[in-house]
Amino acid sequence: LIAGNLIVSSLLAAERHRLRKGQGQDVELTLKDVAAATIGHLGLIGDAALNREERGKCGNSLYGAYGQDFICADGRRVMVIGLTARQWRGLVEMTGTAEEIAALESKTGLDLRDEGNRWKLRHAITGLLGEWFAMRRVEDFAEDFNAKGLTWSVFRTVKEALAEDPDLTDDNPMFSTMTQPGLGTFPVPGSPVTFSATERQPPVPAPALGAHTEEILGDVARLDDTEIAQLFDRGIVQSPGFVARPAA
Fold first, then answer.
1. Same structural domain for residues 24 and 99?
2. Are 109 and 76 contained in the same domain?
3. pTM confidence score
4. Looking at the predicted structure, is the pLDDT value of residue 105 above 80?
């Protein structure tokens, strides 16, 4: 996904350079370099180079601060984040765990206003908060969490999200309900970019394999109708609507 977007932006940058400078150029991009650059941009290379300890697996925990998933009384799973000072204060306040958190700070000598300390004590914090969530259904706290502006969400399957989230339907201008031949009808996204000068183009069905065979042979390969027909007759190329003539 990142490589695909870089290809587009790099070609546009080169085209803009040619437009302004009158100079064309080659643009090279390798998938491996994109992967390596992404690892670097995420801070993983710097982390490995500067820190003595290897970064371990942390499950759903938010690395470097506090964020964790919890199972609620109704069996649903939620994720809560305490990255910023505001997020952390709100989480402690809404769960009523201020005294327990203060006791944990006193016991360890670590100030949990520091996000790094919240990472160090994440297991202890999760132990304190886990009981609170286990005793409540999502509907018991969802409205209060939203009113407080906490950063949290319910884990949902894609089917659940499709059934519940209007952003995945025609209510979102990016989506159009479309029939894909051979598959069925479902919401399909167009471009996520909105331009003020042009309207967003609706998505179109994906072509069947070979749908543009004749177009490519004629417009790109510059073959005439006779040459194209011979390729079809010999079974070298096909299109979805082609029916081979029986052999003599």
1. no
2. yes
3. 0.69
4. yes
